[in-house]
Design a protein that fits this description.
Chain lengths: ~425, ~180, ~325
Amino acid sequence: MSEVLTKTSFTIPVGPIHPAVHEPVRLDLTIDGEEILDVDIIAGQVHRGIEWLGMNRNNAIQSIYLAERICGICSASHPFSFVQACERAANIEVPKRAEYIRTIVAEIERIHSHLLWAGVAAHEIGFDSVFYLVWRVREEIMDLTEYITGHRNTKAMYMIGGVRRDIVEEQFPRIRQSLDYYRSIFCQLKTVFLDDRTIKLRTRNVGILTKENALKYSVAGPTVRASGVPKDVRQDQAYGAYADLDIKAITPDIVTGTVVGDVYDRIIVRLLEVKQSIDIIDRCLEDMPAGEITSEPKLVKLLSTLKKAEGEGVGRCEAPRGECFHYVRMNAGEETLANWKVRAPTYANLMPIPSMLKGGQIADVPISFASIDPCISCTNRAIVVDISNGRKFSLENEDLHKLSIMKTRRLEENLVS
Amino acid sequence: MNLLSPEEIVESFKSSLGKDLVDSTIYRQEIASKANLFTSISIVVNREAFRDAINHICKLQEDPHFIVISSSDRGDNVELIYHMSIYYGLHLKEISLLLTVMLPKTDLRIPTITDILPGTIFAERETQEMMGVEVTGIPDNRRLFLPDDFPAGVYPWRNDEAGLKPEMTRVLPGRQGMKHE
Amino acid sequence: MLADTLLNVIVLIAGPVIIAFLGAIFGLLYLGVDRKLVAHMQGRIGPPIVQPFRDVDKLMVKESIIPDSAIAWLFKATPILCLVGSISLLLYIPLFGQNAMLTGFGDAIVVMYLLTIPSLALVVAGFSSSSPYATVGAQREMVMMMSYEFPLAMSIVVIAWRIGLVTNLNPFMLSTMAAYPIWGLVGPLGIVGLLILVFSMLIVTPGELGKIPFDVAEAETELAGGLLVEYSGRNLALFYISNAIKSFAVVSLVVAIFFPYNLSPILGITATVPAVILDVLFFLLKVFVIMFICVIVVRAAVARFKIDQASKFYLLIMSAVSLVGFVFILLDVII
């Protein structure tokens, strides 16, 4: 590399704290003027040891809620994959109605996530008006999530063997009302994102990921679809209610006729997926079978079944950002999981980043990086929680409490003096 | 692309790997109202035939989708599972593959497959730092998630003496400690 | 005689101070209006109009951190240089419907040179803070300065040349431009040319002020604040004020060149006090209208350009546009 790097090149660290990356990750850019010569990704700033906790401390049911907190946005995809993996490991059946409810919640999350992304993308290219307006539009789906699950984001709907709450007939009109709202504004969204001159100027031919590279790096989700690979777990492998619906993976050539693999194509894919999700929810509401919502409503009994279970299972689902994968192995007699491995979509999507950024400009970094919709918290999960080399990584609860009291005292003294 | 049934895939592994194929299982599950099948195949191979197995998967589909490596401590052995999927892009035809390799703890080495599937680099780096499995020929030997000042020779996913030391973890009041103390 | 000199000295000292204060107050006020209006366009409530004053107030009491690797004296000097540059700009531009304070001591060419001083100070500030973000920001600021200079100079020179055809006074003097409003001198073709020049001047303004879509030097999401990333506390406050003053000055310059009209002669008000009040209000309205068109609306309606896109836009497209404007005015003269 040293031959390439002349004196004029220097390194810019983007992150771990930088407006372009909304979660802690570091991209080291070697630049010459405005041109990017080399990119290095340094991850690992938000490790919380979630898999380790599932393997050492929590029982399987507790781990569902931990899985939900792997990511702030994919709070449906991770438990969805996790409960599938557990059900396969422990051979638990899922009622059909539960599959439909799971699907509806997962699709609501997709609409929410894609709209959130659209706002962030607009902000990254300095188009704050679109950012604010899209996020205002997003409020409707947040309200709907709250209406169905009781919380705007942390849904807590999934349970091994089914779901925790039913979606009943009386709730359908409210759901349809939200869907109609998004149908009515979809054309506007499409005009804003696909026809606006400046957006096109900033996203066309920027951050190109070729089909070849996408396949080489096993990229997932809208990122790989925008490069022209019709890969979508909802279409490819049977899970949830998607197995009953004819899902077709969305690629950008549906709109433009060609595949470039740039940021603009990723916008197209995400935008059309919002429409697709609306249709999926509509179908699920129509076709929802009657019946139980869980195969084992008594948690104590379920827990003892899980404790006796021996086996392994994989759970896969298409999260808004791509394939979310959980692998679980259970040993009989152990309350905790014997093994738990999570692969969030960004884990795979980070790898092609250097090839997307190289040769581009610094100005393209935020939007190119944002265009894979990176979720760093998802990617970094498993690690030690606390002390190493005799140095504490984090403070004990009690310590924090003490510090907090001390600060209050200090402030009080200042006030008096 | 010539789509093989799960049984045919197992057969093709048998004929390609011979006695290096230790075990194979096919898992099927009926999903939702139309009872479409979720299919996954678990293949266990010897380490010597590991790269051949990967090459064989690449013959089934040119660019198999690599997902992740999961690894677990099984007493005297370390089990690595390479999770992959083939036949994606077609409606409900995808098959999940679990390619398992057992490594004895006396010789924790596995050849890299980044030359065949470049997308495995993160997973290999992670396996190396978390499980203490040496990936031979890996192009990027740095740590992925662990900080640089993390002590060498400690591998968080191991359950034996190379795993986390009890003093490195914190037990919240009212909670049990590490399972394998 | 002595009293006169003394008075002159007092005026010379007090005048700039007063003008600087007025410039800062109105600059910050317009910034607050800008933020409020943009917020409403974006569906937000936005901060109160006096927010910029509070920002300055807060920055003044904050710690000014100087990075270890920065060139300290330069790092501290540039905010003052920037402020001085912006204030001296104000002294040469007719404000509030009155003549400029230093009328007769400098013309539009001086103003054009003075315009580059705050930008240059920013560039030096960026380089002296020795942060990679600031360095890239400084490079971008330099490119921007070179890019918008031609269309800006073109508009001013063409108008001065046209005025020069009808008077013996120095046409570059802003007072001459006020005495001979350009719109009255030209025929239909010239009006078209002038409209084109106004347009190019309005497009240059956001670039000159570093506002979206031309805020490449500060580009928050790319360079984390760019040029000023290392500045804090009082030093940042000085840059903040100079930016507000410069915005006010640049828009006033557009007003002085293209719309030097006063309301009082038209309405026939001759009494000094009402006339001045009326002119001041009318001037503030003109400034608001220009700012609304070229800063507020633009900022809400477009995304940020990349540096090469912004530079090409000014160097090629806007230069061509201003040349077309010139050709129209030339044809108007010939025919």
